[in-house]
Fold this protein.
Amino acid sequence: MSDPRSTLQTKFGDEHRFANFGHVLMQMHVQGFRCHLNTLVEIRSPITAFCGLNGTGKSTLLQLAAVAYTNPDQNWPRYYVRTFLNAGTLDPNPFADTARVEYKFWQEDRSSKSLTISRVASKWSGYRRRLKRVVQFAWVACYLPWIEQRDAVARHVNELTVETSEDVAAHIKTWTCRVLDRQYDRMQMNIVSYANQRRAVARVRRGASEYSEAHMGYGEARSQYLIQTIESLPTQSLVLIEEPEISLHSHAQHEFGCYLVDVCSRKGHQVFVTTHSEPMLAALPSESRVYLHSGPNGIDVIRGLTAVEANSLMTKGRDKALQVLVEDEVARAILTEILRKGDATLLSTVGIHAAGGASEISAAIRTVAATGLPIAAVLDGDKGANPRANIFKLPGTRPPERELFDSTAVRNLIRDSYGLELRDFETGLAGVNHHEWCQRLATRIHQTEAALVSEMARAYVKALPEIETTSLSQLIKEASRQ
């Protein structure tokens, strides 16, 4: 089964992008707005998730994205710079006199169309050239808990008139249940009124219990509101959401990220979110994650981070003393056992993450190291090390799968535990990529691949010379203290 994130990214390829998503925003160059002195953001996915510490301008980018288009008719709000940013007594300079934001939009002929909104003679120019597109901005306060809505409808709940009741669409119910991990037997939207006021009110049924949003928690009610709002939009809309994870538990945060992937793929929406949620970031394509780091010259845009790396940056490294990148799960298992053997206490303070090939890891090391976050890499044995850059390598001179399969200790393990001679099994691996060896062996002996790799790594490391394990453990320990 294909990964929905990969499917979404395929739809965003140059040859399919316009048909699937229309005149999407591809670039924002923000100059002179709040902390954004000169920030260039390139859009590489239908979903762009801005993450980072507070005060790094995530909300500002959402606000300026809203300004990029004009809504096609009066049924939808229209946004201007003044909607979000106004100079005043307490805020004399929310933008520079020469502030400007340059946008680039994707065109049907695969070229980019440019638009600049700029400050000229104390006024903003460029609005008349904006493209038309429905823009939905879901602020943090776009939905308030019922108890905080002090209008007449909320105050007179026992005097409401129910004008209409309608079951929500099946896919809305399915996704709401999935996000909240709650099975509703029925979901309705009701139009209720009191005096001259009318409002749409959600209502659900679970077994013998039936209740409206007046008796829902904030996370339960807000997630329903967001899903129904997004589903109500025309295709190829721009959706801007501030911190959708608010009041959601971690699993719900991840599932809401999965929902965004699904709805963008189905309806061709472009979505920008601000978030501090590792589970939500993990649910999105890697191209979606944009980390904003406050540097000495303004805001640095960091791409290519895993959700774990982004979370480590947002916790200022407190989650782990050191994040170590390896190439794959086999390498991760081997390094885990090396650290367990060399210094079990050290293992508890280190995060080890499979992060791809050597070139991707080296690029990540350079990028993340510039932020000051402690990070290191341990490449496969057939790769070159660079200890000065905190890039080390595993024992041996070959990929870790080959080292495992040639280990006498591992051969004995497979023979004694599973009654299989590994040399005989290897005859069927001719021409097979070594990355597939463990999976094929696991299938043959009716074991899970993860459990098998863990067993093999433990046997392999136990037989390694002490100097090889202690030297690598010491290098990791020194890197964690830098």
